[in-house]
C-alpha cells in the first residue's frame, strides 16, 4: 500500500515537473481530465498505432471487403474486426477511401521501420452497423429507426469516417510537441501532413453535400456532422474542438464567415486532443477506462496500460 501511494506521489510529481517544463508556452495548465498521459515518444507513437490500424481496416474493408492483412500480411496482427463490411460507395469515393486505407499501411510500416516503436497487437474492432449506429443514436439522443447504417451509402459513410479522421488528426496535432525523439518527431510531422490532407478532402466532400438529406431520416448532412461533433465534444469532455460544416459567425474564421470546412480555434489553428479524450470518444462511454464502441476490449500498448493502471478515466 505504502509503495503504491509512493508511486502515485511520484507520478504526481512527475506530472507537475513535466507540465512546468512543457515546451508549449502561453498555455495555462488544462484541467486534470484534459492533460496528457506521460509517455516516451515511442509510447506516444505506439498509442497512435491503434487508431491508424482502425482507420486502415475501416477504409480497406469498406472499399475492398478486405482488411490490412490482405494488403500487408503480418504487418500488424490482430483479431478479425467484428462486422466490418464493404460499403455501398460511389466509384470515386471508393477509390479515394481505398487509397487512404493503403496510405495507412505505408504509415504503419514506416513506424515499424524506425525500430523505435514496439509493435502492438491490433485491438479488437467493432465495426458492425450496430456499433457505429450507436454513435448516431447518441448524437441525436434518440433511437434512429431504421438503425443508422454507416455502410449503406456514400452519404451515410462520409460523416462517420470524417469524425474518425478528425480525432486522429487532433491526436497527431497534440502529440507532436511532446515527441522528444528527433526521428519520431520528423516521422510524426509527416504523418500529420498526410492525415490532415485527408481531413481536408473528407470535409470538402461533406461540405459539397451539406444540404443533402440523409434518407430515410429527415436531417441533412450538415445537421448530422454537427450532431456528431457535439457528441464527440461531450464524450471527450475537454471543450468544443469538433465543429459542424456551418457555424455561427462567432465561430467562423475571423468572425466573418459561417462556412467551416476546416474547424479551428479563434485564430483558425487546429485543436489538439489527448490520449484520454481519444479513448473517451472512441469507446463511446466518455470514460477512458471503460472500453466499448469501436474498441470493445480497449486499445493496446504502454500508454493504454498506464491509463487502466492509473485509472485515468
Ligand atoms: C459490437 O457492437 C454491438 C453494438 O453495440 C454489440 O451489440 C456487440 O456485442 C459488440 N460486439 C462485441 C464483441 O463487443
Ligand atoms: C471573434 O469573436 C470572439 C468572441 O465571440 C472574440 O473573442 C474574437 O476576438 C473575435 N475575433 C476577431 C478576429 O475579431
Ligand atoms: C470509468 O470506468 C471505470 C471502470 O469501469 C469505473 O470504475 C469508473 O468509476 C468510471 N469513471 C467514471 C468517472 O465514471
From TrEMBL:
Entry keyword Signal: yes
Pfam families: Ferritin_2 (PF13668)
Annotated InterPro entries: Pigment-catalase-like
Signal peptide range in chain numbering: 1-23
Domain of life of the source: Eukaryota
Keywords: Signal
UniProt entry tagged with the keyword Signal: yes
PANTHER family cross-referenced by the UniProt entry: DESICCATION-LIKE PROTEIN, DESICCATION-RELATED PROTEIN PCC13-62-LIKE
Protein name (database record): Desiccation-related protein PCC13-62-like protein
Species of origin: Corchorus olitorius
Amino acid at each position: 500500500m505504502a509503495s503504491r501511494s509512493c508511486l502515485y506521489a511520484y507520478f504526481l510529481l512527475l506530472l507537475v515537473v513535466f507540465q512546468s517544463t512543457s515546451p508549449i508556452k502561453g498555455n495555462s495548465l488544462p484541467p486534470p481530465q484534459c492533460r496528457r498521459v506521460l509517455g516516451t515518444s515511442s509510447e506516444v507513437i505506439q498509442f497512435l498505432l491503434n487508431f491508424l490500424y482502425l482507420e486502415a481496416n475501416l477504409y480497406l474493408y469498406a472499399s475492398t471487403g478486405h482488411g490490412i492483412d490482405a494488403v500487408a500480411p503480418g504487418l500488424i496482427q490482430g483479431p478479425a474486426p467484428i462486422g466490418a463490411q464493404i460499403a455501398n460507395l460511389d466509384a470515386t469515393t471508393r477509390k479515394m477511401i481505398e487509397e487512404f486505407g493503403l496510405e495507412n499501411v505505408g504509415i504503419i510500416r514506416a513506424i515499424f521501420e524506425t525500430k523505435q516503436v514496439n509493435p502492438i497487437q491490433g485491438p479488437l474492432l467493432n465495426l458492425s452497423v450496430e456499433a457505429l449506429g450507436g454513435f448516431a443514436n447518441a448524437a441525436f439522443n434518440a433511437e434512429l429507426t431504421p438503425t443508422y447504417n454507416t455502410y449503406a451509402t456514400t452519404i451515410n459513410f462520409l460523416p462517420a469516417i470524417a469524425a474518425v479522421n478528425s480525432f486522429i488528426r487532433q491526436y497527431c496535432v497534440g502529440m507532436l510537441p511532446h515527441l522528444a525523439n528527433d526521428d519520431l518527431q520528423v516521422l510524426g510531422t509527416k504523418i500529420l501532413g498526410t492525415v490532415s490532407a485527408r481531413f481536408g478532402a473528407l470535409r470538402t466532400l461533406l461540405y459539397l453535400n451539406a444540404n443533402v438529406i440523409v434518407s430515410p431520416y429527415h436531417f441533412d448532412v450538415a445537421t448530422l456532422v454537427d450532431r456528431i461533433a457535439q457528441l464527440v465534444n461531450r464524450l471527450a469532455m475537454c471543450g468544443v474542438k469538433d465543429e459542424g460544416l456551418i457555424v455561427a459567425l462567432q465561430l467562423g474564421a475571423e468572425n466573418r464567415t459561417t462556412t467551416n470546412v476546416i474547424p479551428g480555434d479563434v485564430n483558425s489553428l487546429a485543436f489538439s486532443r489527448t490520449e484520454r479524450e481519444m479513448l473517451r470518444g472512441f469507446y463511446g462511454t466518455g470514460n477512458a477506462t471503460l472500453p466499448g464502441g469501436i474498441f470493445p476490449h480497449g486499445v493496446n500498448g504502454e500508454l493504454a496500460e498506464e491509463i487502466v493502471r492509473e485509472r485515468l478515466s
